[in-house]
Amino acid sequence: MSITPSHAAELSAFEPERLQILPTFSYYIRKLLRQKSAQLQFSVSTEQPVGVPPDLDAVLTQIYPERSLANAVVLRIEHLVLAHQKRWATGDRQSQPLKTLETELFWWLGYGGQPQSSAKRILVVDDMPENIRLLFTMLKPLGYDLQSALSGELALKSVQEAPPDLILLDILMPDMDGYEVYRQLKTSPSTQAIPVIFLSALDTLSAQANIAEFGATDYIAKPFKMNVVLERVKHYLQQERSNEPSHPEVTPQEERQSRQAAAGQLVCIFNNAQDGVFQATLDGRYLRVNQALAELYGYESPTTLLNGVTNMWQQVYVDPRHHHEWQNRLSQTTDAISMQSQIRQQDGTVIGVVERVRAVKDELNQVLMYEGTVQPENK
After folding, report:
1. How confident is the model over 22-64, as pLDDT tens digits?
2. Would you state the pLDDT for residue 243?
3. Quick one: pLDDT at residue 353?
4. Angstrom distance (rounded) from CA 235 to CA 233
5. What are the residues whose beta carbons fall under 8 Å from the beta carbon of 126, sequence distance 6 or more?
6. Whether the bond into 223 is cis, omega within 30 of 0
7. Cβ-count burial of 257 within 10 angstroms (0-12 exposed, 13-18 middle, 19+ buried)?
8. Residue 33 to residue 363: CA distance in whole angstroms
9. Among 86, 107, 109, which residue's Cα sits nearest to residue 98?
10. Could you tell me if 278 and 293 are in contact, meaning their C-beta atoms sit under 8 angstroms apart?
């Protein structure tokens, strides 16, 4: 998507000031980046940041030099963080939706590739939890996406749901041993190509010969030696990566352009929405409004509304006590609420509107701002 002169003029109406990521959101994002840093590649520049960028707003300025694009991205990032916080708070910490949110969040910040695909997935199968913990301790610092299964049956189920890039498979397990798990993996076309390293407590020539008969990729003897584990895992995952199809290299400039084009689409969606859209501070100052809201309230543009209204409770709402109704109802729920209100347009005309509003809260459940949509009462 290219930005034409007319498009640029439309974008310029999005905000009069450059927005910054709220500190509580910035802290949350940096925490996520620290957790995923080994899996991420900064793709909008040839220089990989050392550690987590201390100033995320400076990163956004580098990627989105045009004010309106940066503001649209800040708005999108806020929604992604809130959605992530909500899932995380409910204990949903391993699901694909959560990883999808992280992927998009990191992408807007200039990191290319998807965390769930760039990080090689390893499935550790062992009926002894202490063995799993030991292998996790060895491999987790390298940024691998580690999964575990305490039985052969659970391992086969896990592989079907999310095929790993490598399986570390214990041989001696109750009910279904590692050999049977291996047989079933190799009889299925969807899993037969996954490399398997057996884990064996029998480091003997006969044990090695028996394992070789099954055609396993390799084996690692117990007790585990860290240098052996790391060497074998790295070797076979690098082999698999070399067999992956190559893709045309995308330059940092192209990466920036793709993000700027996507940000332009966000701005268009915001500005062209038929319903009025807003965000506002607790004391009644509008932070963002779209063209539909400006027109509904009798203003020529979002800029004139933002410049003309310094306290919406006093200037827009006929009943200034409306603020307290918002506070009371939103304190009892995390969802959006619907309300009917009377507002005063710029020329003093009073009209009825229907609002759908929610409180944007941080990790400590403190209200940061209000956001919502507005439409005429008779729509």
Report:
1. 888 888 998 888 888 777 788 888 776 666 777 898 899 999 9
2. 54
3. 95
4. 5
5. 132, 135, 148, 150, 168, 170, 173, 199
6. yes
7. middle
8. 17
9. 86
10. yes
